[in-house]
Amino acid sequence: MVSYAEERSANIERNKLILKEIGMEKLKPATEPKEKRKKKKTPRNKNANNKRKMTNFEVPGGRDPQAVEQPPTKTARVDSEVSEVPGESRRRSSRIASLPAGAVVHAERRRGTPLPMSVKTIVPSASGAAKRQRRYDPKTYGAIPGIEVGSWWASREECSNDSIHAPWVGGISPGPHGAYSVALSGGYDDDVDAGYAFTYTGAGGRDLKGTKAAPKNLRTAEQSYDQSFDHNHNKALKRSVETGKPVRVIRGFKLRSPYGPSEGYRYDGLYTVERHWQEKGLNKGGFLVCKFAFKRLPGQPDIPVRGGEDEEPEFPSGDEESDAEGVDTSDD
DNA sequence: GGGCCCGCAGGG
DNA sequence: CCCTGCGGGCCC
């Protein structure tokens, strides 16, 4: 029988081929910007709230943000001076590693704290927009005004608040004419992330409730049955292929790829879903999974790659050879 | 590190 | 109301 590693490489190779087929080569810049470590420029500012968002890379030489409806740079919401997050060098791998020192999580949102309910009701937000104080409807195709490509958040909750990706947990935010957004967090071991294109695994096929005897109430779990395009989320991504609607993409720190941020979540702009198919997933049982191939729209700022200084690129950033990269368990 | 258990946004 | 989901705090 085939080992997990072998099966994984095989899947990865197949997925890489698909990415080549959809023509992502041209999108990848000759030289890729390094992820900017969030240095601790500003002293501290321990006033909570500065954990808002920040753009992670300033593009060398002004590119023209034309091609893709670039939202008006409107840094609202950061009411306080956008102090640099003193996140310094944290090694990825820990959870949401460092909410930078001063970035205290709002007490109301903490888990054990008592008044989460009242938080929602605060800020009626006249326009009856949403319960949260969202400025824009996340159920929008394309860019969210005011959120630049490269913006960064410490948690999924914050991404949701800024309407970039509404679900707190789910990777896919479905809509009638396609998905609005997806989150790459490395949930599936055989997905390939080449930055300017990537493969993505659909939702479903998991038993989140556990067994009758041992109920689990989980949020994620191993595959235990086939995924299908009947699942609303997968159906939405399939629609994206048909309609060509752009999908917002965020990458999370758990993503094992040079393009994954070392901490938190980063908005990497708009992509189109080029293909959808089903294949045997990397799971015990060989259950089918729904797969999708995404390609980035041109004209957006380059994606920063990890490996600023104290981090060594674990993969040769691209695909190229069939480098046996991930096959190992290169710890981490 | 792993296991638990949970809040929440969204859709049905 | 019910169920789902590439989180995440907490405890061990």
Automatic annotation (TrEMBL):
Bias (Acidic residues) ranges: 309-332
Protein name: YDG domain-containing protein
An annotated GO BP: protein ubiquitination
Ranges annotated as biased composition (Basic and acidic residues): 1-35
Span of domain YDG: 142-296
One MF term in the entry's GO annotations: ubiquitin protein ligase activity
Localization in the cell: Nucleus
Superkingdom of origin organism: Eukaryota
Keyword NAD found: no
Biased segments, Basic residues type: 36-54
